[in-house]
Amino acid sequence: MVRDEAFDRLRDAIITGHFPPGARLVERELCEAMGVSRTSIREVLRRLEAEKLVRVEPRRGPEVVRLSRKQVAEIYEIRATLEAMVVRRFTEMASDEDIAQLRAIFEEIMRADENENVYDLVGLMKRFIEHMMRVVDHELISDIHQQLIARISVLRVLSMSMPGRIQSSMGELRDVIEAIERRDADAAAESLTFYVRNAADAALARFDATQAES
Predict the structure, then answer these.
(1) Same domain, yes or no, for 83 and 130?
(2) Considering 39, 64, 89, which residue would you say is the last residue of a domain?
(3) Which pTM was predicted?
């Protein structure tokens, strides 16, 4: 459907930072850019508002949501809990082929690291956890996780750009995949929690730096 396509396009534009936090979303301009009616755009904006990606400000209209420091910390806290649950279940139930496919994604991450393409890295890291989500097949966790990641996607890219973060992430993810390959669910969950907590520290540091610059 046209509205679904417009929703996906605008959602991707927000997640990738084309429309940064605080950016105004002018209905007329969006209609022209996407070739859809104002009615369709309003429906798209309502759906994005429901996902907490957009909010409507009095006398300003719709704009991309700005997260507070507290909200960023809370999102990463919940993310750590959800991903630890997923990696534990994956380690216990995945087939050897499932684990081999996860290893292949990790090797892609390592190759992207050599090119230092942050956008590619973040996309591959997303595939890493999504592969485990598909195998575990827990619909509610997947839905909640998808919404959380969408809200911090821009911040993830910025935090990965911080000196040393890419290299430390590679080591942390290596610990995760090696624990999974050993079928050590406790170690896998612990390693992934450590990775997400370090990601949270980097994201909050980048958030603080951005606030200081503004």
Answers:
(1) yes
(2) 64
(3) 0.85
